[in-house]
Structure formats: structure tokens, C-alpha cells
Amino acid sequence: MKKIVLPLLLLTASLVSAQKMSSNKKAIVDAVEKHKAELVRISDSIWGLAETAFEEDQSSKLLADYAEKNGFTVERGVAGMPTAFVATYGSGSPVIGVLGEFDALPGISQKAQPTKEPLNEGAAGHGCGHNLFGAGSLGAAIAAKELIEAGKLSGTVKFFGTPSEEKFFGKIWMVREGLWDDVDVNLSWHPGANTEADVQSSLALVDFKVEFFGQAAHASADPWNGRSASDALELYTTGINYYREHIKPTVRIHYHIQDGGQVVNVVPDYSKLWVRVRDTKRSGMMPVYEQVRKMAEGAAIMANVDYKISLISGIYEVLVNRAGGEAMQKNLELLGPIKYTEEEEAFGKKIQEVTGKPQLGMDSEIKPLLETKEHPGGGSTDVGDVSWNVPNINLSVTTAPKDTPWHSWAVVACGGMSIGHKGMVYAAKAMGMTMVDLLENPKLVEAVKKEYKERKGDEVYEAIVPDGPPPIDTK
Q1: Which has the least CB within 10 A, 92, 361, 438, 467?
Q2: From start to end of 289-432, where are the E strands?
């Protein structure tokens, strides 16, 4: 009896949700379903290509071409980045933007299976689900465009193809070019291990490189004639590690040694490392950044070498918008949770077993909207810079099992099969439905903009980028 009752309850809940949907929101759901096969094809193609920062030539083209095929006017190579583009449809206000990402992470290639095995040894993989991100966002934009085309809605939809989120943060240069200046409200989503209207911020971040220049010498015959750039590097990283005791718990400092010398019997005359500083607020990050910069000079003095600091880029924390989050939350409740097959649940539990996590399976439950934390944990995103220039509504959708290690092979595995596909399609529907709310309801747009202005206050946005073009040729 229980086996019969449960499906009936789920079917009833689904019918109730459908009955509450407006005709335009039903049209969004239908449009996404109509394009589903193509969206999955595009996502899987990008998953297989796994192109990294500023090298997403084919991935970008797949998305831009499909936007063009569906009636969007596409401007390619914007903001000095060959793989960045903007696809536009409609005219007049409101102008609603939606973000799409498509870059992969180096070295985590993986087959679409729940045990670790690379698809291509040493190659990149979509360990952050950006193959799903780009395709899902485009699906939402196309669904909203079709309603405008049918005369059911009026306004403008813009899809932003944004490269290099994982490394150089391409959106900063797009913001610098003013590409969101005419946008009223922007939407974004990100693959995750749960489904929620995301009203949490992220961490501000700054990236820079430190190089030390010394004098080479034979490491045994005449080391006294050498001035070791490697000594300076080690002194510098030691200083950073001692400094950790005296920074706030919200701060994170990472570094990656890119060149510490080439052979053991030479006093190295060159060394280089990549340093990253984060905090929950840009205002807290900047003093730490300045101190860590000064420490490079101290290390150079101690090792009697020269040094050079080069800014790569930096990003703001996300400026949360709860008014937009509340609108998104209502649409998640209308859609209800994603349903998984027994095979998908087993896939998820196997991922959890192999990665040493409790075997809890998938979590797509729609929970109440959370309170916004003052100091959230987590990572960083260049969506933050967009959110300081236009109100942004963010969404997280389940594309991997609970507690999955992110930026890992496990996320790559899920992004190439039905668990990832279901999350992508769900995201397209939820964002498309929220776009309907914004295009239909000027008061909602006003409320979102009002909160944005209040949260931003008097702070003037200053992009943390060096002068000149994006670092397309920087490795």
C-alpha cells in the first residue's frame, strides 16, 4: 500500500505546483523541455572539450552559434577576449541579463562514472560544472526570448558568454567595458550539491605574482658568488605562514610555487610564485594584500636579491539581493525538487563512498530561504564584480551528490551524465520563470534595484585589474 500511496502523493504535489503556474511560466517550462535535447548535447560537447581559461574557442562557439540559431543577435570577441560574447534579443525595458560560463579546470579529466578514471590522462575536466552553467543559462534566455517573440512579454534579454572564471576572471574586463551598463537586473546560477535561491555572498580575492631575481653560481664550487632567488622565495613563504596567526579567521592566503629553480647543483637566479589573498569583504582583504606585498620586499632584502610584484586581477565579494532571492525561491517551490532514478541515487552514493563521505545520495529538497550570513565561507567568483554594477539574483542547483568535493574528478563525472543534465534543465526553468517575474512586474524590478542601491551604499566600484588588455597570452 505504501508503494502506491507515495507516488500518488508526489503526483498530486506535482499537479498542485503546475496549477499554480501562470501560463507564461508554463510556457517557460515547455520551451526548456523543447530545447532539452540540444542543451544536453551542447553541455556534453563542452564537457568533452574541457577547454581551460581563454582557450574555450569551441565551447564559446557552440553556445554563441546556438543563440544565433535561435534568433539572438550575437556580438563575439567582446572586451578584448576572443571567447567572450553577448547575445541579445528584444528591445526596450526592462533589460534582463543572464550569465553563462564554460571554462574547465586543468588536470582533472574524468569519465562519466563513479570511480576515478581519467577520460584523457592529464587533460582538463569540468570540476565546477561550467559545461552545465553555460548551457543551462542559455536555455533560460531562449525560453524567455520565445515569450517576447510571441508577444507575451516585452523587454530585452541578454545572454553573457563569460570566459576564464577559474583563472583570470574574465567578467572583470567585461564590466570594465560597460557591458552591463544598460542591464536592469542580472541572473546567474551555479552547479552545486543542493538546490536553493542563493542569498549568501562569496569571498573577495586578489591574485598577484612575485618574482625574485638573483645571481646564479655553482652550488658547490663557489656558492658564495651566488644570490639565491630560491632563498628569497622560501623566506617569503615562511613569512606568509607565520603571518597566518595574526590575520582574521575570515582571511585565506594561498600560494603556488611556479619556479623554484631548475636543478640542484645551481644557485638559482630566478624564482616565481602565484599568491592569492581572500576575505569575506574587499575592505578586509586589501590591508592583508598590502602587508603580504611588503613582505616580498623583506624577503628580497634578506636574500640580497631583487624582486618584482605583478597584479594579475582581483574580484569583489557578491553583493546579495534578497528581494530577487525571494522571487527565485517562489519559483523553486513551484517547480519542486528534482526527482532521481534508483540508478542515479546509486551513482551518487558510489561517488560518496569512493570520496569517503556518508552515503546519503542526492539532495534537491527545496528548503526555506536562508538568512544571509555576514561572513560566509566558500569560494570566490567574478560574479561579484557584476553584482557591484547591476543587481544580481543567484541560484544554486544540485548537479552532484551531497558533500561531493568540488573542483574534483567527482564533479566532472556527474556533469557528463543524467544527474548533471537534470540540474542544468532545472536551472534553466527556474531562471526562465524568474525572468518572467521581472519582465512582467516593474515593481519587482524596482524592489531589486532599491535593495541593490541600499546594500552598495556610497562605495565606489574600482576594478582590481592592471592597465591594458586581458591576459590572453599569460600562462
Answers
A1: 467
A2: 306-315, 392-398
How many Cβ atoms from other residues are within 10 Å of residue 343's Cβ? 11
Q: What is the CA radius of gyration of the chain?
A: 24
CA proximity to 120, closest of 381, 462, 416: 416
Residue found under cell 512579454:
153
Amino acid occupying residue 449: K
pTM of the full structure: 0.93
- Name 312's bridge partners: none
Q: Say which residues have a Cβ less than 8 Å from residue 342's Cβ, sequence separation at least 6.
A: none
Cell numbers at 192, concatenated: 552545486
Instruction: State in Å, rounded, how far the first CA of the chain is from the last one.
Output: 62
Q: Are 209 and 265 in contact (CB under 8 A)?
A: no
10-residue stretch averages of pLDDT, the chain, 475 residues long: 42 50 98 98 98 98 98 98 98 98 98 98 98 98 98 98 96 97 98 98 98 98 98 98 97 97 97 98 97 98 98 97 98 98 98 97 96 94 98 98 97 98 98 98 98 97 93 75
